[in-house]
Amino acid sequence: MYRIVQVKDVAELNIATYKKDEFPTNIQYLDTSSLKKNIVENFQFLNINTDVIPSRAQRKIKKNTILYSTVRPNQEHFGIFEKLLDNIVVSTGFTTLDVIDDEINPKYLFYLLTQPHITEYLHTIATNSVSAYPSISPNDLGNLKFRVPELSTQQKIASVLSALDSKIELNNRINAELEAMAKTLYDYWFVQFDFPDKNGKPYKTSSGKMVWNEELKREIPEGWEVRKIGKILKTSLGGTPSTKVKEYWENGKISWLNSGEIANFPIIDSELKITEAAIKNSATDLLPKGSVMLSITRHLRPSILGIDACANQSVIGILEKDDIKCYFLYPYLQNEIPRLMEMRSGAQQPHINKEIIDESFILLPNNETEILKKYNAQVGHFYESIINKAFQNQKLTELRDWLLPMLMNGQVKVN
Fold first, then answer.
1. pLDDT tens per residue across span 249-305
2. Which residues, 6 or more positions from 311, have their beta carbon under 8 angstroms from its beta carbon?
3. CA 214, 215, 220, 221 torsion: positive or negative?
4. What are the structural domains of the chain?
5. 121-124: long-range contacts (C-beta < 8 A, 24 or more apart)?
6. pTM (2 decimals)?
């Protein structure tokens, strides 16, 4: 049994906002840029004080409130709150939807609204009248019509899709924990210098000998060496094949990254692909899996390649060599970001250049101690697990996105 419903008839849109004297204490603020398609409670909140509340922080949420960004609707900035949280304030960049029809499952409505063909449709009708980016109005959501089955079927469909999303989110949480554990060990060994000495005790804490280093302006373990990255490792600045040559882009199978995609960790895919001819006739290089990538324009961010890939000229790749693995280079660059950010130049597009990376100092242990080998042995499986789970999530996402429209239109039945 199906019926046709219009969203504005089964859900209230933007029903409640906060006034200045109504804000909760210990505010957690959610902006549109901090939310990617999410069905579970792992939103990236910003903790803010009541005296510096952003002007856009106004929307109230309830249990099962659906959030849908009106800005760039095809970028998947949407989510649903499955729990009641009373200190959450969300941006007016979201439309909030609260289901008022007892025959509509909120999670099912969330999945209806987030079908790829729906987000693409909303993108096609978006305008730039109220924003620098394509935007829709709450009415564009409210006017959508859907054919929906009975409540019990809605609940079964939502349960299947939610299980996939929950598995994806679980993998994300595990990866975050693994990355944090690996970073903690890196800092313990190579920043605090409490790597295990020949007796297995923490080096610096156990009074291991430290010597002053003029380049780093700090004490380092005796026997360790300060080198410039460009002197010991191959670095590669990306490039862009001519977009006027179809041969470089049509039927391309080689991943080609832009600087924004370096925000993904690890990197296991790219939006655009190029051909072998593109590599031969442009400045871009094919970098192997395990290379550490650094975006050098505006927001400087490092990541690790889980695939072989090329990149544009706003990305630098650093290749592994011997025991200097991505497991060591990635957290090293994470720690370098504050310094590198201060070295950016350019008003409209603040950036650094390849020379800055090549001239950057990196501290390396004495080879005879085999500290790097021991470190790689301890953290290597963390990073390999992170990459494997990222690929697993890629497959789960593909399965979810394939099932979503087929479940919604009845092509696939749930018993």
1. 999 999 999 999 999 999 999 999 999 999 999 999 999 999 999 999 988 999 999
2. 238, 256, 257, 258, 259, 262, 284, 287, 293, 317
3. negative
4. 2-148 (3.90.220.20), 150-212+367-415 (1.10.287), 225-364 (3.90.220.20)
5. 122/73, 122/74, 123/72, 123/73, 123/74
6. 0.86
